[in-house]
Amino acid sequence: MSDQIEPDPRALRLEAELSRKSFEARYPIPAFDGHSLPNLAASALARGTGKRPEGILPPLQRDVGGEADDEEKTQLVLLIDSFGWRMFRHLLDGPGGATGLAVARGLVPYTRPITSVFPPTTSSALLSLSTAVAPGTHGIVGYTEYFPGWGAVLNTLRFAPPWSKVPDLAVGKRFTRADWLPTPNLFAHDPGAVALTKEMFEGSPFTRVLYEGAEFVGFSGLSGLTRQLTHLLDRPAGRRPRLLWAYWDMLDTVNHVFGPEPGLASSELTEVFLALARAARSVGEARARKVHLWVTGDHGQVRVTPETSRAAHADPRLLELLDRPPAGERRAAFLKAREGKVDELRNHLAETLPESWLTVPVERVLSSGLLGPGPFHPELKARLGDLLVLPGPGEALYSRPPGDRGPEEHFLWGSHGGLDPDELLVSLVSLPFSELARWPV
User: Which of 26, 110, 153, 278 is 20 to 30 A from 312, alpha carbon to alpha carbon?
Assistant: First the structure.
């Protein structure tokens, strides 16, 4: 007898709706009207604090967020990096043994697809989850991005040029969150909020920007996550956080290195949910009932290959036409042409790229809804440039500075940042934390 489990039919209907090809008749777009990551953030804020500040996106629609109750509960939002909807489907297709089967069955009634943001990448998505606005509003649109104030393309996680092995080179002594992001964090509305993430991230500029206003609590490993989470939820009622944002990164690591392998994804997800179940049992049923758990992802992943990927630095004519290095993602590259060379750049791309690749003017990207409903960051157009290039299935565009070892030597078989449904659609688990304590594992 097969252990394969079918998703909830309502989840499959929603998957089809969110996958509808509405951008250039080829790709889906983020569902910022109530089925996306920033909508989740708005829901958690409203349910945890009762606040709905102006300028953020609306809460989740009921078909994914469910009905809010009047009881005061901690909103525990765990983002598992790379927890795409396809990863959840892998978990249902091949749960490992009795334990994996129990975890998968326990999740099915509570799990639906939503969309990430565009581009579906960690820096853009995490900032949308901490601000409840789209990337076009907070202004971080990709793993790398051009910043006029610095006059350079920078890595948006490491605050340094992409070629630098040293992080934080772009951060001056007086750097503040406002230098990078014009929108406030949700944690400004709840002085008792907590950010629970790996100890190694403490104090980094990205962490400061991401979690400003929240108490930082670090951990090492899944056992450390369970221990710290238990301690936080065991606090007396007056000190227990109403907003608790947590982050786990290892699923993304294995997906990048080995590609989005079903077995690896299922094993990693099972272990994370078992850790949550241990924490739920540790705090006891009474306190676990005072917690609502949301588990989601920042993006999915697709497999890419060296044979179908293009190296921008290997095309001399392309480099002649570009005003600066490509930015964004391997699966969604923003290009800025030299003065007066936009048409030549567009023609060169049309002549040299496969038909499966799509090139779109940035003006059309801004009007399409891909980056949100606005208002847009005042530098957004200057940061993005002239053209967006979306490689075809299993393909990527990458670049490296002269003399630097790049993806030729360390190719990442899993990638994201584009608009394939396997990249854009992520999982959303929404359930009372006490439910995990009753799992037969």
Answer: 26
Given a contact cutoff of 8 angstroms between Cβ atoms, the answer to whether 243 and 186 are in contact is yes
Is the separation of the CB atoms in 232 and 196 below 8 Å? Answer: yes
Residue 204 belongs to a domain? yes
Sequence-distant (≥ 6) Cβ neighbours of residue 410 within 8 angstroms: none
- Write out the H or E segment, with its range, that includes residue 246: strand 243-248
- What per-residue confidence (pLDDT) applies to 191? 85
Q: Which of 278-282, 365-369, 385-389, 409-413 has the lowest mean pLDDT?
A: 409-413
CATH number at residue 133: 3.40.720.10
Beta bridge partners of 216: 195
Domain count, the chain: 2
Domain that holds residue 123: 9-302+422-437
Task: State which H helix or E strand residue 335 sits in.
Answer: strand 332-335
pLDDT in tens, 215-224: 999 999 999 9
Residue 3 in any domain: the answer is: no
Do 241 and 338 fall into the same domain?
no
